[in-house]
Amino acid sequence: MSNAQQFVLSVKGLTKSYGATSVLKGVDFSVARGEVHALLGGNGAGKSTLIRVITGSATKGEGEIIFRDPAGAARTEAEGRRKVAVVHQELALLPHLTVAENIALPHFRKGFAPFSRKGALRHAHEALSMIDRDFASASVHRLVGDLSLHEGQMVEIARALSSGADLLLLDEPTANLTAAETERLFSVLRRLTRNAGLSVVFVSHRMREIREIADVCTIIRDGRTVVDRVPTASLSDAAIVEKMGQLAAFHSAEHAPLARARVSGEGLTVREDGNELEFAPGTIVGIAGAPVGPQALIDALVGAARSKRWTVSRAKWPTRFSSPREAARLGAGFVTGDRSQKGILHSLPILDNVLASRRVVRGSLFAGASERIECLDLLQALKVKADSIWDLPHTLSGGTQQKLLVARWLGVPSDLLVLEEPTRGVDIGTKKEIYQLIRQMASTGTIIVWWSTENVELLEVCDRVIAFDTEGRCSGLIEHGDLSEDRLSELTGLAA
Amino acid sequence: MTHTTTQGTQAAGQTPCAIRHRESIIGTYRTEVAIAVAIALLALAVGSQVPQALSWGNFANVTQAGAPLIIMSLGVLLVVITGGIDLSVGSVFSLTGMVTAQAMAYGYGGVAASMFGLGVGLVFGSINGFLVTIAGLAPFVVTLITFAVAGSLAFIVTNGRSMPIPDPDFWLLNSGSLIPGLPNYILFCLVLLVAIEIFLKKMVAGRWFYAVGSSAAAAYLLGIPVKRTKFFAYVASSLLASFSGLLTISYILNAESTAGSSLMLQAIAAVVIGGASLLGGTGTAVGAVLGALMITVIQNGVNLIGINSFWQGSVTGLAILIAVVIDRFSKSRRGAG
Predict the structure, then answer these.
(1) Which ipTM value was assigned to this complex?
(2) Residues of B numbered 69-128 whose beta carbons fall under 8 angstroms of chain A's beta carbons: which are they?
(3) CA B268 to CA B274: how far, in whole Å?
(4) pLDDT (tens digit per residue) in A360-375
(5) Which GO terms describe its molecular function (chain B) (predicted)?
(6) What is the pLDDT of residues A228-252, one digit of tens each?
(7) A359 domain residue, yes or no
(8) Residue of A nearest to B23 (CA)
(9) What's the topology of domain B31-330?
(10) What is the pTM for the complete model shown?
């Protein structure tokens, strides 16, 4: 950035409110050509709203947004937005169309023009090849509705990368990717920013990723910019966390010792041919590896799909659950990793979202007043900021919605709780809170099964970790003493 | 569903498109082939009871009787693909007939009166489209309203009386031959079928229909003109319903206020039999046409065999059930054409 900081985007004094709640209270944010710019902030700080306002999917309040072309001349907002591509936190995919169409269709601006399947395929293949050649060849024809969450994420990223935009806004693009894919994505981003002058705004809660990819960062907190364009290298982790307003959480829970009393109770055994895994009561068992293997195990544990591989064995439990309902009523809880599609009930208020699992477990017939008190208590325990329990979930930030999912099982007496990436898209402060809550549940004797693609997290929370390789086979069991990132990446086949 | 890609070497910069991009006809139109076979079997079954069912004369009868339903189904299909529903087509059909006949009674020629008729479709399609897109109301509710209003207007036009068609040449619209040897009703069906199928598959705007039905929110974020696409679907649906109304009065030379009352459900049934999902995002024009043909063949068969015509609805219901169940189990998820 030699020639006096040429900005593609400058946002000044931006405000935005939804009804009475003001989300952005004056944000300054500018992105220079050819840089990767980390946009940081806690849950509900306003990152996603800022992105929405920049792309025009939400209207702005006060302030100005200026887009500039490569020559430095200002563009109109409409023109500028055409050169912006976004990867949303909630994937924007068309399930009935093929991967090729999902990637290529937005490039056809005119309706009454022929749609070239061949062109779309070539375009999509090129785009996907940037991240994963094998995936590209194998999947361009597939329907997006048949893809897994993580494959969908790749499609969405490929679409943004190939859109010909000057500015990419990536809202937690790595949340559903494995380490290896993340690495490939980063090398593509580095190449495009250096050689093609692309600018990237990168939202992530993973400190290590931020350090690896971002040149500069801007931190917003409570709707205001608190750090404006500072080189990432000049800030320590602690400084970043402090600026985000989460210092207390960062220190208090860091490396919390595993000082838990041994809990009595009945354990759980799961089997597949040749393999037997035992889960002792009160332990937190991590699951590591690419999604194929963990998915089958988790499906068996929560009855989400009839798993042909794994059988469960525990007194009073069937060897195979017939449904998540049966599992829940017998004491096996589940927090899905697909928050938007399978987790949040979007048309129901916060109240029903929080109480959903309890009602099933208890077999409640009526939704009574005591439930409201219970919901309020849970929201308080989780420090959820909401105006009313009757608000719809979309009024909350992504991280806060995640808290609602965890809240469903909080304090419900259960023997097993399976969590898929429970801290995905959640800031450090909330992460530590969730760790704490889960540890509490474990201390009451609940077996916790925790699937995460973030190895660091597994190291921090788990007593032992079951690793799966990229083929979906169970490749090893690591006890707490032997846990290390190297060991995990060796067994999972994923780069750490 | 094995879209194999040729594995080829994949050095950077080499042509990556050794991928097959043409799908086989059978693969693409699997549901449609199954329905076509089912229709053939149905016809043979009826033919084994009543031999004249397989005569050329009966074939012409079936197509002529089925043409309005076929055309209406194509319109409903467009709306269903976008994830909507159009309950007003039957009423628009009836009202078109009444307005056209009344216009002729006032002394307008066949062509001018037909323009009035199509105007009914244009107006009601625009109202549907406007209320669904700009006002953001639910398609079911919106078209339930226009269904009721257009249905009542169809009575008001002539105070409930049926109207004979005064223009002596008007029958030519249905039974004339713009192309010698090919009756118009077949010509219209074919032209519309081909045009809509090509539009849906080969035009960008056609893919937008599927995109909007697949996920309107995602389509919006991708910059696809969601409202325009939906609006166009409702206008097209009403216009096609109007046109099928014209075709019918030109065939029976009489306009009745209740002519279209049973057609709306049949058209929706045809679209569903043809493999479309009422949740949107799927369906083909070929499927919708075959679905409409199937319903017509069933009705014709019930008549020929001499079963009490009250059974028609039950037989049609059974056909829908079988078609949907087969579709459900033949593949986990159906793509957008």
Answers:
(1) 0.78
(2) none
(3) 10
(4) 888 877 777 888 999 9
(5) transmembrane transporter activity
(6) 999 998 988 888 888 887 655 444 4
(7) no
(8) A141
(9) ABC transporter involved in vitamin B12 uptake, BtuC (1.10.3470)
(10) 0.79
